[in-house]
Every structure is written in structure tokens, then in C-alpha cells.
Amino acid sequence: MVSALFPLTVKGATTTRRGKVLAGPIDLTLDGGGTCVVIGPNGAGKTSLLRMLHGTARITRGQVTWACDTETARHHQAFVFQHPVMLRRSVIENLVYPLRVRGMPRTAARQRAVDWATRIGLGHMLERHAPVLSGGEQQKLAIARALIVEPRLLFLDEPCASLDGRAMREVEEILVQAAASGTRLILSTHDMGQARRLADQVVFLLRGKVQETGLAKNFFDQPQTSQAVAFLNGDIVE
Amino acid sequence: MTDLWQGLVQAFWLVVTFDAELAEISLRSLRVTLTALVVASAIAMPLAAFLSVQRFRFRRHVVALLNALMGLPPVVVGLVVYLMLSRSGPFGVLGLLFTPTAMITAQVIIIVPLIASIAHQSLRDLWQEYHDLLISINVTRRQKIATLLWDARRALLTAGLAGFGRAIGEVGAIMIVGGNIDNATRVLTTAIALETGKGDFALALALGIVLVALAVAVNVAIHWLSRTEREGRW
């Protein structure tokens, strides 16, 4: 299912804001399936990379090329933000929204939303106002809202950054199910435990540039750069 | 103090006896103001949402102009509308001068900037919150505007009520374009001005009390109907 979007080629992509380089120049090629985890210390450019790939951050230099045209690629993507953005609506209406935007009839959209709410354990609070949910519930709802349109590719920006252990486990279970059903995941994290649990492929970023990339097993067992070794050892890397 | 007491007593009797003239004037006030509010909201709210989501070259200037127009002097608006609708004006052929339609037109011009400015502040904040999500979901501009208007509906209610308060208390412009004609264009505010001019302070005060009660009643009714303070909402 993901083959229509990949390989994804990033050539010298740079994003800036008010003259300051947030990330780049980045050169990267992603293909195949599985989950790609972007790791690196705070300020390394993880969020900026994900936003550049998704198209929500303006690429000031370089380019991002998909296997299909950009419009089609955008249509098959979804994004989950570090701090979940809840529409000021009920749980069910948050899930119905992206389907309605895509033109699905209300009855069918509502039925699918109920299924998803049940799947993520929010089936008993369909009519509750989404902004008053707990952090873990909001993040699960945000992930479900992204997955409900059956994207081929899902970006997740530190999806478990502010969650406790139980909520993190529940979110990871949803992500593993999504990956198993054919959705390609690209997620950023600085939680090495989570990276080891989820990653098939790793991109290690430092100071806005890719320092190392490869299969997760190779990266965690035999990192090639001294910065990656230091980062995996828990040393401060800047 | 005597006038105040007499006014209260007279207001009480006018209401309990359901005075026909008072009822007619009050209903006309409500009809003119609510019509103006609906028309103004239909213009101002989508405009505010458009200004929130759309970036264009002179957007800041337009927003600044809108804010400045909040202080538009009603008498000047009345004068301009009068000139436009008078026989020698461009719309004189429509014969709208000294009709409720002319009063509604003036009120719409006065309250559109007010509603749009207040609505824009709420919608701009909501847009900052929703921006990344809606871009990510690939919604169209029309869908963005519809989403903002729906999700900010309670904040927009406040903007609407501000417009209602301004319109129902308006006297200068509608006196000029309406003419304060008995059984035709007389509303509570113009009637108050007339009775004050005639020196009948008690009746003027009675009408004033009815006007205040009407404004408060409409506000409370709208809040109650929309359940603004319902638990679990923002």
C-alpha cells in the first residue's frame, strides 16, 4: 500500500524562520515499509523535518520528492502533533470531521467514527467534549482522527512526550496495529526505549542535519558516528 | 427623584396594562434591530473568518480599518444613508427614506465593523490553535471558514450580542433616516428622545426602563437558548 508514495527523496531540503535555519540542508532517502523513527536531542530539527516532509513547513531551499505527485502524496498523509489539537467538539465529532471534509456521507462517517472510538477505548465517551479529555485520551483521539481516513503514511511528532507509562503503552499498541495494517509510520521521539520498541529504520538528527540513517538493529547495535554513540550512551550531544 | 419614581410607576403600569402603543413601538424596535443584527452578522462573521484564515497584502490594514470603523459616529452614518436614500440620491428611486428598511440599513452599517472586529479577535485565536491541524487535514478555504464559525459559535454570540446592544440603543442615525414617524418608524429610542424633548420625563423614563428590560431579556434569552455556560463547555 505504501509503495505508491515511496521512495521519498529529500535533497538539500532546508526550512528557515525569520532568517534562522530550523533544519537542513537535509539529504535523505526513505523507501520500503515499516516504521521510521527520527531521533535526536532537543532542537535537532526533528519536528521541522517531519513538517517539511508533510508540507506544513515551507521548504526554503532544496526539495522533497515523492514517488507520486505532491498533491496525491499529501492526500494520503496524516499528521499527529506533539500537543494534540482538539476541535472544540465532542469525541465523535472530532472523529467524524476528517471524513466529512473528504465528502463521506454523515451516516457512514458516524458509523466509522463509533468503530474507531470503540477501538481506542473511548467508545463510552462519544458525546464528551474533546478538549476536557485527559492528555492520554486526547492523544489517542488525535491518532484515531488521523488514522480514520486510512492514510498510507502517518507522521507523529513525539506522540508520547507528555504521557505516563500506561497511556504510552496504549498509544504504542494503536501504532503497532496501524503499522501492521499497512500504514507507514514516521515518528520522532527522544525516548530511546520507544525508538527501540517501534523502529524498523532510524534517522539520527543533530543540529538540523542527518548524522546517520539505517536499519534500527544496525543503528542501535553498531552506530557509525561518534555522536550517535554518545547519544545512545546518554551523553549530552549538542 | 420624583420623575424617577413616577417613571418607574408609569413603566410598571404600561407593562402590566400591556399598553398598545408601547407594545407596537417595542415590537418595531425589536424587529428593526433583530433584522439588522441578522443581516450584519451574515456579513461580518464570514468576513472576520476570511480575515483570520486568508493572508493577503493589505490584510493588516483592513483589520485596522475595521477596528477604526467601530467608532463610526452614528449621526454621520445616518446623514450618509439619508443622502443616499433621499430623492436626489443614487438610491432615491427605491423610496426607502423614512421606512424601517432605511433604519435597518443604517444600523447594519454601524454594527458590521463592531461585530466583525470582535468576531475577528476570537476567530484569529482559534485559527492559531487550529492552523496546523486544518492544513494537515487538507481542508479547503471554505471548509476552514465554516469550521471556525461553527467551533467559535459561542464566542461569536458575544460579538452578536454586542452588535445587538449597540443597535437597539442607537438613536442618532435612525432618527435621521427613519424620521420618528408615529405608527411607522417610531422606535423606543426615538420615542424617548421625543418625550424628553416634550418634557414628559416620566414617560421617557418609562420607555427607557422598558428598553433596558428588553435588551436584558433578549441577552438572557439568547444565552439561555445557546446554553453558553453549560458544564463541560468552554
TrEMBL record, chain B:
InterPro entries: ABC_perm_TupB-like (IPR049783), MetI-like (IPR000515), MetI-like_sf (IPR035906). The chain crosses the membrane at residues 32-51, 63-85, 91-116, 155-181, 201-225. Its main location: membrane. Keywords: Membrane, Transmembrane, Transmembrane helix. The keyword Membrane applies. GO terms for cellular component: plasma membrane. Residues 26-222 form the ABC transmembrane type-1 domain. PANTHER family: PERMEASE COMPONENT OF TUNGSTATE ABC TRANSPORTER (PTHR43632). This is ABC transporter permease. It comes from Actibacterium mucosum KCTC 23349.
